[in-house]
Design brief:
By secondary structure, this protein is α+β, with helices and mostly antiparallel strands. It has three helices and two strands; from the N terminus they run H-H-E-E-H. Helix 1 runs antiparallel to helix 2 and helix 2 packs antiparallel against helix 3.
């Protein structure tokens, strides 16, 4: 249950007025919803999943049992987007991906 119907409007406005990566736009919408009042009760988890052309969810992130899950998810997303494309390349053609220095990474 949302605290106020304006939450949805603010989320839509934030999404539609933003540009860039879909994940970033969705995260901006979540943050706008939170700033507009968010849920009526406590929120302890948040997640985001985005599939692009690879055929799987290239971004699939979740925060569970946090006092500030949306803010934590936003931080995690920033870290993930820096390396997302390298992991997608690794899934499609490991020989073309950057080395991570782990066993089997020859």
């Amino acid at each position: 249950m949302l605290k106020d119907p304006v939450v949805i409007e603010k989320m839509i406005q934030a999404f539609e007025s933003s540009e860039g990566e879909l994940e970033t736009r969705l995260m901006g919408a979540m943050l706008a919803g939170l700033n507009a009042g968010g849920e009526a009760g406590p929120v302890h988890s948040a997640g985001i999943a985005v599939a692009r052309s690879s055929g799987w969810a290239e971004t699939d992130l979740r925060i569970d049992w946090s006092d500030q899950p949306i803010e934590d998810l936003s931080k995690l997303l920033q870290e993930w987007l820096i390396q997302r494309d390298d992991y997608v390349i690794r899934g499609i053609d490991p020989s073309k991906s950057p080395a991570y220095g782990v066993p089997g990474d020859e």
